[in-house]
């Protein structure tokens, strides 16, 4: 079987989930997030673009409802023993199959938590699900349950993240020689993604972000490549990925002469990330981390050029995003605790001058100061 953790690790995760379900008085959980299924059982697929659900009962027993295309995938990549198929056909309603399965599991009238907040459950599927369950039992939104358990990484998971971070560094190693006058974004992107693959890594849960010139001010991937000029800027956001665990990085690299404005923006980004590192310790919250970033940006007169979030938790994620729900934004009371892998990004986009400057690293939180997972320091990179 293609499992990336031993049985003891999966047993520990199941036990944590069962304890949390008992505290919330849930008789069952309906898991629709692929991340939850992977974390709990190792099940590895992109088949969540169709309706599928992992039912977990209060005693820890599990049943997967999926399509025939994923039957062998589930058998080969997961610890799931009980797999039920719904049939592809015209006007199929897999929510009916799920209701019948829940009835067979003696869950009629039970208190059931549902993972609604996931790309694994579309709006249409949610409507079908609610139609079938509205009179079946007591249904409640438990979207945060597994995602919060996943926030705290085991030693086995930390090893995966550190391997991913090494691949992230190797991606930047491959890119830097190509960042120069006449350098092609296509070649840079290919080198970065190729380095991750060559190192035994995986596809990222979302595209690497690459943009130069005016496109360096964008925070998302877009189609289309260009070549660099003598004095240019290129913003890269990428992740090393190993067994779906991500370690993201972000960097604006300059070619040619460094402008005064670029230097000002870099100084602010470095100062802000340094302040964030000092705040990313037990006793503070995710909101405190954002506030530390915002104060530095205000001091540098850059409030209008910053974003309203400055990072998030990372872990094993699937398309369309490598971002976990816990984010650094104002008022987030989630406590910083040891064993989290957190990506902090200082993103400054000055549309007035057309200047970009971004600096981001992934950290492992500890009992004290966080551990940066990249061997690259907080330096302005010029070519």
- The chain-level mean pLDDT equals 98
Structural class: alpha/beta
CATH superfamily of the largest domain: Creatinase/methionine aminopeptidase superfamily
The CATH topology label of the largest domain is Creatine Amidinohydrolase
What is the general shape? elongated
Describe the protein in words.
It is a single chain. This protein has 383 residues and is of the alpha/beta class. The protein folds into two domains: 5-148, Creatinase/prolidase N-terminal domain (Creatine Amidinohydrolase, Chain A, domain 1, 3-Layer(aba) Sandwich), CATH 3.40.350.10; 151-370, Creatine Amidinohydrolase (Alpha-Beta Complex). The chain contains ten helices and 14 strands. The chain has helices spanning 7-23, 34-41, 71-77, 94-104, 123-133, 144-151, 155-175, 185-198, 260-279, 286-299, and strands at residues 28-31, 53-57, 62-66, 83-85, 111-114, 138-141, 209-212, 232-242, 245-255, 311-313, 341-350, 355-364, 371-372, 381-382. The strands form two sheets. Strands 7, 8, 9, 10, 11, 12, 13 and 14 form an eight-stranded mixed beta sheet that branches. Strand 11 (341-350) and strand 12 (355-364) form a beta hairpin. Helix 4 (94-104) crosses helix 5 and helix 9 runs antiparallel to helix 10 (286-299). The protein is elongated, with a radius of gyration of 22 Å. The N and C termini lie far apart (46 Å).
Keywords:
Xaa-Pro peptidase family protein, Creatinase/aminopeptidase-like, elongated, 383 residues, Creatin/AminoP/Spt16_N, alpha/beta, Creatine Amidinohydrolase, 6-stranded mixed β-sheet
């Amino acid at each position: 079987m293609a499992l990336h953790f031993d049985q003891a690790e999966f047993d520990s995760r199941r036990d944590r989930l069962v304890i949390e379900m008992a505290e919330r008085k849930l008789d069952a959980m309906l898991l629709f997030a692929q991340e939850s299924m992977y974390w709990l059982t190792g099940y590895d697929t992109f088949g969540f673009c169709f309706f599928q659900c992992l039912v977990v009962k209060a005693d820890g027993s599990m049943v997967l409802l999926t399509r025939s295309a994923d039957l062998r995938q589930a058998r080969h990549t997961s610890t799931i023993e009980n797999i039920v198929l719904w049939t592809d056909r015209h006007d199929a309603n897999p929510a009916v199959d799920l209701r019948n399965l829940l009835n067979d599991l003696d869950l009629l009238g039970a208190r059931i938590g549902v993972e609604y907040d996931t790309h694994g459950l579309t709006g249409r599927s949610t409507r079908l699900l609610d139609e079938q369950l509205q009179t079946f039992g007591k249904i409640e939104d438990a979207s945060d349950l597994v995602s919060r358990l996943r926030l705290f990484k085991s030693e086995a998971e930390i090893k995966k993240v550190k391997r991913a971070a090494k691949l992230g560094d190797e991606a930047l190693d491959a890119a830097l020689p190509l960042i120069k006058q006449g350098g092609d974004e296509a070649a840079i992107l290919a080198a970065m993604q190729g380095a991750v693959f060559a190192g035994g890594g995986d596809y990222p849960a979302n595209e690497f972000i690459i943009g130069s010139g005016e496109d360096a001010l964008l925070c998302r991937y877009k189609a289309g490549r260009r070549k660099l000029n003598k004095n240019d800027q290129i913003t890269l956001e990428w992740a090393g990925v190993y067994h779906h665990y991500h370690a993201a990085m972000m960097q604006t690299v300059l070619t040619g002469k460094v402008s005064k404005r670029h230097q000002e923006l870099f100084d602010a980004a470095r100062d802000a990330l340094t302040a964030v590192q000092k705040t990313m310790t037990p006793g503070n919250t995710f909101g405190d981390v954002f506030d530390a970033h915002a104060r530095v940006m205000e001091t540098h007169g850059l409030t209008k050029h910053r974003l309203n979030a400055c990072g998030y938790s990372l872990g094993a994620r699937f398309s369309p995003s490598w971002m976990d729900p816990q984010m650094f934004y104002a008022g987030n009371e989630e406590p910083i605790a040891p064993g989290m892998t957190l990506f902090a990004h200082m993103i400054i986009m000055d549309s007035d001058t057309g200047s970009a400057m971004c600096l981001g690293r992934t950290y492992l939180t500890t009992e004290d100061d966080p551990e940066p997972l990249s061997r690259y320091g907080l330096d302005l990179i010029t070519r």
